[in-house]
Design brief:
CATH topology of the largest domain: Rossmann fold
Shape: globular
Number of domains: 3
Distance between the termini: 31 Å
Helix content: 10-25%
CATH architecture of the largest domain: 3-Layer(aba) Sandwich
Order of helices and strands: EEHEHEHHEEEHEHHEEEEEEEEEEE
Strand order of the largest sheet: 1-4-3-2-5-8
CATH class of the largest domain: Alpha Beta
Largest sheet: 6 strands, mixed
Radius of gyration: 22 Å
Low-confidence stretches: 11-16
Oligomer: single chain
Mean pLDDT: 84
Number of strands: 19
Structural class: alpha+beta
Amino acid sequence: MKFQISILFFSNLNKMTMKALVEISGGLDSSYVAYLLKQQGYEVTGIHFYHEMEKEDHNAKIEEIAKFLNIILMFKNVKDEFKQLIQSIDIEMCHQKTPNICVMCAKTIKFGHLVDYANENGYDYIASGHYVKIIREKDDIHIAKADDRTRDQSYGFSVIPKKRLMKVITPLGNYIKTDIRKMADEIGLPYLQKESRGLCFVKKTFKDFYEEYQPNLISGNFIWKDKKSPHQGQQTYNIGQKIYFEKENLVVGKKEANGDILLIKKNEVWKNRMMISDINYHTEKENINLHKMYQVKINYNGKYTDCYITIIDDKIEITTEEPVYAPVPQQIGTIYDDDVIVLGGYLE
């Protein structure tokens, strides 16, 4: 897919050895990455993804950042790519799965189309503001946890093919977020105060955006034992989502015929066994020790749980030392060996 890009020039470039394409959202992290690379002597070009719903003052802040850094800035309209992404999410939800939107976006857009563009246009590296370490060793890379464990984003990188990450650099893996903010403020770096969450391209909650994208919502009832309560849109609820109906419950199923959503009590969803498929190996399959204890993480805010793994054909069975909370279909299962990712896949 070819990019249609508008370019603003804010730089008088000198000869530099390495060209870096930096994804600039306007937030603190990506803006500081561009600053760091500029200080290290890279020829930095910023690229910003936008959607037609984005506010004009947001783009104005992006331009202010580029002027401050004295770099070239490119704007990429992701309307078509994002529409395809939402369609994929819609299909997954209709099959009663719970897709990770941010990771799907990273795979298809940030480390998908953007990688192709960088390769076609002679960039040496693609840089992002993710808190994760990409460790280079000869002709290979390893993905590891960031120093700032409160911000670590390695979990979602487990399902991104390594070949898409060979040119990616993530400088913030070696930093602490509070230090980044302090250093950025000291140099007067402009950035948006509000951090990206969820559907960061459209600045709306998923529920609001989905209702606009899919106006024909299916109404029905939440069903909990012998009780029920009406809802206004079955498609806007994910398997595994928390619903506060009397007490905290989780969505465990949907009845498409009448729009009902089935709930279960929170304490009934702890599991010791799970399967993951569509395996993305970060360690060679033959080098995995099936007698070794690894750690698994099944959601971004979840804990690391000791586990053993068994390879069954093209799937991985995970047995945990203690129960994990609410594994749901299409969420990511990431296996670690201490700080380093071994493999990743999708929960069944």
